[in-house]
UniProtKB/TrEMBL annotation:
Keywords in alphabetical order: Membrane, Transmembrane, Transmembrane helix
Domain of life: Eukaryota
UniProt lineage: Eukaryota, Fungi, Dikarya, Ascomycota, Pezizomycotina
Residue intervals passing through the bilayer: 6-28, 49-66, 186-207, 227-248
Record's protein name: Chorismate synthase protein
Organism: Apodospora peruviana
Length: 358
């Protein structure tokens, strides 16, 4: 049954078309994931902007998953009445009327019954569903393409809804630079799914059901395609949400800052440090210009000098310093620790500035 919807020829055509586009991207993403730890970029909490995008994608994905439930699918008169395809229309709709609450057909049932004029209309019913067959004002059973033209807006409606959700979730206003990075790829994937959907519906061989003599042999293309369509859109949204989460938390697909960005962030950090130093200088100048504060500051430092001098002249301190210099201090270890401290001192402000910018 599934082979009627997706055969090997279709899959091969899609791979030939999308393979050269997607394969280099997949390799680049793998290399980015593999090389991410080398850039010393740490995992961070999920930004609030990306969290809002994830909520939107989760809501849309859940909506499409709910649409796959059989209870929400359009009614299929053949499965409801347990009738085969070749059953006379009068018998089919008589059975359907007995299953209605008031024992009579609805207006939609009456319209649909008028469309069941031959075997061709029943086959088109299985391909395009009840709404298209009953509501199309210009369609004819001998022109199957007319039903396709009428069905295209309904086919594109869920794709357009999903595309709008992706556009909002990946916009720079909502999710920042993390979402905008994946905006193009998500749009291409959404267009690819919509194009594939239209192609499969238009190329489906609806005449294959003509040979089915039992209800179990019928392939209900419209209902199957509806489930596959919703599942594909839900899967796309879930995949995009997962990629956004991994990117925003620096767990995968990490893009290290460019040299220009690192220089800019370091410049901002140095400007901040310079501002603090200037503030300290202002306070110090104020203290020096005030006679009372200057006298208290001078007295404090004179006292500290005398105190430290007395401490350093004590015998126990002198012996302890000599012992440490001769036996317990490793100059190599001190040098290595100093290098690590300086490296951390330089990189930590840059990392904080990057987090604040995000």
């Amino acid at each position: 049954m599934v082979s009627q919807y997706l055969n090997w020829g279709t899959i091969k055509s899609l791979l030939i078309f999308f393979g050269p586009i997607l394969l280099p991207k997949a390799i680049a993403y793998y290399r980015s994931y593999r090389n991410a730890p080398r850039h010393n970029i740490k995992i961070q909490p999920l930004p609030s902007a990306v969290f809002r995008s994830l909520l939107l994608l989760a809501a849309v994905s859940t909506f499409f998953l709910i649409r796959t439930l059989p209870i929400l699918s359009p009614e299929n008169v053949f499965t409801v009445t347990q009738s085969r395809l070749q059953i006379p229309a009068d018998v089919l709709f008589t059975r359907l009327a007995t299953m209605r609450a008031n024992g009579s057909l609805s207006d939609f049932d009456t319209t649909l019954r008028a469309k069941f004029v031959n075997m061709e209309s029943r086959l088109l019913y299985l391909q395009f569903g009840p709404s298209v067959l009953a509501d199309c004002p210009f369609c004819a059973a001998d022109d199957s393409s007319s039903y396709l033209y009428y069905a295209v807006p309904d086919l594109l409606a869920p794709h357009l809804l999903n595309w709008a959700a992706i556009a909002v979730a990946t916009s720079a206003i909502v999710s920042g630079r993390y979402g905008s990075r994946w905006r193009t790829y998500a749009t291409i994937a959404a267009i690819a799914i919509a194009t594939t959907d239209i192609y499969l519906v238009s190329s489906y061989n609806y005449q294959a059901n003509r040979r089915a003599t039992r209800l179990q042999d019928l392939y209900f293309f419209y209902w199957r395609a509806r489930v596959y369509r919703a599942a594909a859109l839900a899967g796309l949204d879930a995949l995009l949400a997962a990629v956004l989460y991994l990117t925003a938390t620096h767990r995968a697909f990490v893009s290290p800052p460019s040299p220009a960005e690192r220089v800019e962030m370091l410049s901002r950090v140095l400007s901040s440090v310079k501002g603090r130093v200037n503030a300290v200088g202002v306070v110090k100048n104020t203290a020096n210009r005030d006679e009372e504060l200057h006298a208290r500051s001078t007295a404090y430092w004179n006292h500290e000098v005398r105190l430290m001098q007395d401490v350093m002249e004590e015998r126990e301190v002198i012996e302890g310093v000599n012992d440490a210099l001769q036996n317990r201090i490793d100059i190599t270890t001190i040098t290595r620790d100093a290098d690590a401290y300086v490296t951390h001192l330089i990189n930590e402000p840059t990392r904080k500035a990057q987090v604040q910018e995000e």
